[in-house]
């Protein structure tokens, strides 16, 4: 199936590692021009850019802290300079934050998660939507999580940020729809990436994780990347203002498979 993404101008935040890298690769494989945003590990974005350009594609790497409005504005200007604008924003960058119950957590660390995951996602959407509304086309795909609906003790900032991104996306989708622009979310479950390495590398942690996943396996980054590319393409031109879960059934209340 040709997704029609050839030459589309795509920005993937946090595109140098984990899910972001898999998403960036999937867009590059579809012939899109891919800008990789990163904050740390420049080597990883360098490697990806070399890989994409060696395969005949166009790619950029842009260092920016997405929670900094000035840095985000400069990043979008750099994409304007290179490609004259943007067609698809994948807001992927995010952090889990430190484990800690609400009454123990450091309020500054709590706020940092909101700054990156919620405010950073908004700041990038703000810049992208300005351009997309003016050109009357575009897609903003925000990465949330099963934790936009599943509570998670010790991670109240993370769950609040992801639920926040979900509702923000629905509101932005209402605003942007009359202008030919879609805004939606993809919500991964447990995917094998560095963010949760401590869990899937630990035998007991992994066993416990599997009890939470009806399909009985951890997700691979490609499970999410394939859907992300599809959702950003015209194959999904009738989907906006909603979240697509890619979670092996984690949100299907696996503990209710028996009893109740
Ligand atoms: C988190 C992971 C976690 C997964 C399932 C994701 O949003 O980033 O650390 O394993 O949700 O709980």
What attributes characterize this protein structure?
44% helix; Rossmann fold; NAD(P)-bd_dom_sf; alpha/beta; 7 strands; 260 residues
What is the fourth-level CATH superfamily? NAD(P)-binding Rossmann-like Domain
Q: Radius of gyration, rounded?
A: 18 Å
CATH class: Alpha Beta
Could you tell me the strand content as a percent range?
A: 5-15%
Pfam families: adh_short_C2
InterPro entries: NAD(P)-bd_dom_sf, Sc_DH/Rdtase_CS, SDR_fam
Keywords: Oxidoreductase
EC number: 1.1.1.47
Topology, please?
Elements (H helix, E strand, L loop, with lengths): L8 E4 L5 H12 L3 E6 L3 H13 L4 E5 L5 H15 L4 E4 L15 H29 L2 E6 L12 H21 L4 E8 L8 H4 L2 H8 L10 H12 L10 E4 L14
Parallel strand pairs: 1-2, 1-4, 2-3, 4-5, 5-6, 6-7
Helix pairs in contact: 1-8, 3-4, 4-5
The structure holds beta-D-glucopyranose.
The site of beta-D-glucopyranose (BGC) has 9 residues, from loops.
């Amino acid at each position: 199936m040709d997704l029609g993404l050839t030459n589309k101008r795509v920005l993937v935040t946090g595109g140098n590692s984990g899910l972001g890298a898999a998403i960036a690769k999937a867009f590059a494989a579809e012939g899109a021009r891919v800008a990789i945003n990163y904050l740390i590990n420049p080597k990883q974005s360098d490697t990806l850019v070399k890989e994409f350009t060696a395969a005949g594609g166009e790619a950029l790497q842009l260092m920016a802290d997405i929670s900094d409005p000035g840095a985000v504005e400069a990043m979008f200007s750099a994409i304007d300079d290179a490609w004259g604008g943007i067609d698809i924003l994948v807001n992927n960058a995010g952090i889990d934050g430190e484990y800690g119950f609400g009454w123990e957590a450091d309020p500054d660390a709590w706020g940092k998660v909101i700054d990156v995951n919620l405010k950073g996602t908004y700041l990038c959407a703000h810049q992208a939507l300005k351009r997309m509304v003016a050109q009357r086309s575009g897609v903003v795909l925000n990465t949330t999580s099963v934790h936009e609906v599943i509570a998670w003790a010790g991670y109240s900032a993370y769950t609040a940020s992801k639920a926040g991104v979900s509702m923000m996306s629905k509101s932005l989708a209402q605003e942007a729809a009359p202008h030919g622009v879609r805004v939606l979310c993809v919500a991964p479950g447990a995917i094998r990436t560095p963010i949760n390495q401590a869990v899937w590398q630990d035998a007991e942690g992994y066993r416990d994780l599997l009890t939470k996943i009806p399909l009985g396996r951890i997700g691979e980054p490609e499970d999410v990347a394939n859907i992300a590319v599809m959702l950003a393409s015209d194959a999904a031109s009738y989907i906006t203002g909603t979240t697509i879960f890619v979670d092996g059934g984690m949100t299907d209340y696996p503990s209710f498979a028996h009893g109740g």
